[in-house]
Amino acid sequence: MGLPPLSHGGPRSSMMSVEYDGIPLPPPSIRSCGSQQYVTSYIPTGTAFPPHSVQDLISSMKSYASATDLVRTYSDIPSVEEALVTLDRAAVALSARRYRDALKLYLEGGYAMANVAERQTHAKICNLLTSKGFETLNWCARLCDWIEGRVQEKHPRPGVHKVGIPVSNWDEDWLGPCLDEEEARRLWYTPVFCPHPLDFSNFGYRLRCVETGRRPRLMVCITMYNEEPAQLKATLKKLANNLAYLKEQQQTGQSQRKNGLTGPFAGDNVWQNVLVCIVADGREQVNDKMLEYLESIGLYDEDLLTINSAGIGAQCHLFEHTLQLSVNGKCLLPIQTVFALKERKSSKLDSHRWYFNAFAEQVQPEYTAVMDVGTMLTKSALYHLLFAMERNHQIGGACGQLTVDKAFENLSNWVVSAQHFEYKISNILDKGVLSLSLRSLFEGAPLECVLPDA
Length: 454
What we know:
It holds the Pfam family Chitin_synth_1. The protein has 14 helices and eleven strands. It is of the alpha/beta class.
């Protein structure tokens, strides 16, 4: 079935002309998402977008309904679940290069999103569905232009749409002196369609820190599988303690007078030069309690993922938020954090591939460190690692000494004692021998020493 010529006149601009007093309209970024290569949108969730904005969306895209006679009518209102399934079917058709089938399904799913948004009483869900409706129907316009030969592109794919929402479980104790409220209260999500991590930047994806002009000099990778949330809590707390220790060295003057660090790794803004990436291996495998904990600290949102990943065929779900944790009412230093949730289970090696080839490749930090969730750094671990590498550029990698938690308190436990003995012997013998040749694993290293083309 041939596609008839499409009208590109007035209907689209009508989305920009409607004003409603006192009710937030969908921002211009939402009204253009899907039609452009990269768009960042912040979606308020306190008040629902006015119903007429959804009607305008439907009216503005009526010219594209002529692209197929198989699209459901406006009066046919499916459920949210049906709309999501339709968009996922569209993504499958697109990956199989059945472009006309994909266009039909995307149109059907886009109208469905707009339809069901009108019936939602929850402001957050309503606005997310409206945003997804704009994104999908704008993408239909691009796909239809490509089919008609008006767009030159080898393999068409939806544009990148980074969506931000307010952190739902907000705690006023998180707002410390180093972090402004806007950064502290916003969670950003990007569904990543990128078969090969090396293409992350080429496909137009950008990390939030890069967008804001920050280029952290140190990146830390924490790999995760199905561990309990207590392990991540301990690791994040210890990382925050390390940042505080780096800050203290500047305050006491040790970094300038003795053998400490100066410049970006000292002072109040030390946290801006550290980026933590948590990579989870498999959406189905990750612990549900872990996701609940991540949501409680503003680093995950199930509704945001479910709605905005529909129709993308995402291989990775990227959440970004600057954590402001507190312990006993005392604010810890902020932690710039990326949570990468892989759609399918692969391996720890694949998690490292995403970290190095996608995220670190874009940020280009000077130093990188990798660890498993549950690792608890001593408070000066990062300081000594960075100090050694800043002073001696011949160092290509370093590895810490592993110890069991509270070894001497558990001497009567033969399992703990055996583990403690094994760690000590390994550090004395194995690490000493390995230092004479090549390290089999770099826990901490300058980035150029671990990249494949270095």
